[in-house]
Design a protein that fits this description.
The chain is of the alpha/beta class. The protein contains twelve helices and ten strands. Helix 3 crosses helix 4.
Length: about 325
């Protein structure tokens, strides 16, 4: 059973049927660097790109995940983000210049769960690299527990996003290791009291296209997670992600939180060409993902019991 505030916010972040179809455009340094490969980037042009993405791709979205500075502030000022749209905001700073095994959890300066709640968001998101056997694993679990407590204090859901990494900076994870870390992360962090698990696919598609292996790993992930889970795209191509979403929803996922798989090609485009791509291909992808989630996804309400409120509940709330 969850609190009335969290339950209402989860309803606001999802479709009426209980599926997450969230547009992710909270990318910061990595997106800036990608845009800079094609044209000079300024604060204004970076902001404009995020506004273009939100303008064209929110029609089929249940919520938007964006950053406070370049995404949310301008979207509020210009009306790009309507008041009926769910809103997730990040807590973390991510340094992509470091190998994931060396990335500590760092919070955005002068930002907090309290401010996320005050600005009218419907969820807080915490992304971090994680391996259960890493020297900093216990520290990161403690930090997640602190975020859980802060979100409980302000009665707002925590969307937790652990990203598997290798212990050896000189090599990546094998598929058995990817599966083990993703599944163990689901078990660990759902036990810590997070509200929604934002998870990567438990198999690296570059290493294996065996859908039998994919299904088995997804079954393990679904069994390990005690909370609703949504699939992130992790920079994979749209065609691969679409198939992953179909299988994940069939396995028990409650939807998607998708970014680059939908809008990545727009980074290399300029002007009218960018608008045209987002308005056609990008929008069509969001519609298609929403249809898959609606057809096959599992409502988050099946894993999150509604609050049972008796007369006078508000007095002690």
């Amino acid at each position: 059973m969850t609190t009335p505030g969290k339950y209402r916010h989860l309803n606001q972040s999802s479709t009426p049927a209980g599926h997450f179809c969230v547009l992710a455009i909270d990318h910061r340094d990595n997106l800036w660097q990608s845009l800079a490969q094609h044209a000079p980037v300024t604060d204004d042009s970076f902001t404009a790109f995020k506004q273009q993405v939100m303008t064209h791709l929110t029609a089929s979205a249940s919520a938007v995940l964006t950053d406070p500075e370049y995404g949310l502030g301008p979207a509020i000022s210009t009306g790009t983000l309507g008041g009926q749209m769910g809103l997730l905001l990040p807590l973390e700073v991510t340094d992509y210049d470091l190998h994931p095994s060396r990335r500590a959890i760092r919070m955005i300066p002068d930002w907090s769960v309290e401010k996320i709640k005050r600005v009218g968001a419907t969820g807080a998101k915490l992304l971090f690299s994680y391996h259960p056997d890493a020297p900093d694993a216990a520290t990161k679990r403690d930090q997640v527990s602190q975020a859980v407590d802060e979100c409980a204090r302000w009665d707002i859901p925590l969307f937790c996003e652990p990203i598997a990494h290798s212990l050896d900076p000189e090599r990546g994870l094998s598929n058995p290791e990817v599966r083990q870390v993703v599944v163990e992360s689901a078990r660990t962090f759902s036990d810590l009291g997070i509200d929604i698990l934002k998870t990567e696919f438990p198999i690296d598609a570059k290493q294996s296209s065996d859908e039998g292996e994919w299904r088995a790993a997804l079954a393990d992930l679904d069994a390990a997670s005690k909370v609703p889970w949504a699939l992130l795209s992790a920079g994979t191509t749209y065609d691969i992600f679409k198939r992953q979403v179909e299988l994940a929803c069939a396995a028990g996922a409650s939807g998607v939180i998708v970014g680059r798989a939908v809008w990545a090609e727009a980074v290399a485009l300029q002007g009218e060409a960018r608008d045209q791509f987002l308005a056609t291909t990008g929008a069509a992808r969001m519609r298609e993902l929403a249809e898959i989630c609606a057809r096959s996804g599992r409502s988050w309400r099946e894993r999150t019991a509604a609050p049972q409120l008796e007369w006078g509940w508000h007095a002690a709330y």
